[in-house]
Design a protein that fits this description.
The protein is mainly α and 110 residues long. It has one domain. Helices cover 83% and strands 0% of the residues. The protein has four helices and no strands. α1 runs antiparallel to α2 and α1 runs antiparallel to α3. The longest helix has 37 residues. The chain is extended and about 55 Å long. The mean pLDDT is 81.
Length: 110
């Protein structure tokens, strides 16, 4: 029971992290422009923030060596529970269900 709860919490946290990263990809390029319009004298702070966020994101990406720690831990929990391993979070929880739903919709339409 404990592993099931951990798996559910982990999947929710992983999903939240994915959503925050995707939203951040669209907000971070626009946010400095908005900040500059509000406070033009803070240009060095704004540029420093952009560089720091980009550098931290780059270093985090390098540190995980293309393996997501969330996915690795989820696979450990899945093996303990007797479930199949997943290749990737987005593929397993977003792309595969979308493809299944589309195939089902195509079959019922014919």
């Amino acid at each position: 029971m404990k592993d099931w709860i951990l798996l559910i919490v982990l999947v929710a946290a992983h999903g939240f992290a994915v959503v925050v990263n995707v939203v951040g990809m669209f907000i971070l390029p626009i946010l400095p422009c908005y900040m500059y319009m509000l406070q033009p004298s803070a240009l060095s702070l704004i540029l420093g923030t952009i560089i720091a966020v980009a550098l931290i994101s780059f270093l985090i990406r390098l540190s995980v060596a293309s393996d997501c720690p969330f996915t690795n831990y989820e696979n450990v929990l899945r093996e303990r529970l007797g479930l199949r391993r997943i290749g990737g979070f987005i593929g397993h929880y977003f792309i595969k269900p979308f493809r299944k739903r589309r195939r089902h919709h195509d079959r019922t339409k014919q």
